[in-house]
Amino acid sequence: xxxxxxxxxxxxxxxxxxxxxxxxxxxxxxxxxxxxxxxxxxxxxxxxxxxxxxxxxxxxxxxxxxxxxxxxxxxxxxxxxxxxxxxxxxxxxxxxxxxxxxxxxxxxxxxxxxxxxxxxxxxxxxxxxxxxxxxxxxxxxxxxxxxxxxxxxxxxxxxxxxx
Length: 163
Prior knowledge:
Elements: H1 5-15, H2 17-27, H3 29-34, E1 37-41, E2 46-50, H4 65-84, E3 91-101, E4 110-114, H5 117-129, E5 134-143, E6 149-161
Antiparallel strand pairs: 1-2, 2-4, 3-6, 4-5, 5-6
Helix pairs in contact: 4-5
């Protein structure tokens, strides 16, 4: 995938663990507190890790659903940030709905992977070219290191060209 200089700069910043920590502290302090970490992104897929820290666990010794939600949303939001860098148009974006299911308890680190980069890119392109809001559903799956699926999320994002 070809990247412009803004996209390349964003990827370099995300890949630098210290810069990513500063980013989360400033922009998403709850994610910083939870220890959310960037793993990888290439424009088509984004992977985020949420560690199984004591502060992230509920009284049942599994990871809070809200902590999992932060990691899941970030795996979709960073793809959107990446593709928004490809446009000169000012585009507003927001989560308008989400659904989740938790097939098993998350009792270890959870990795969230979203592979809907192409869907994001197309929605942002349509938003940049038109006046109507573009809604896209992005899926992300939370797995443990052994591949066990502990959560499935679907986020509905809306992208609309500003004014």
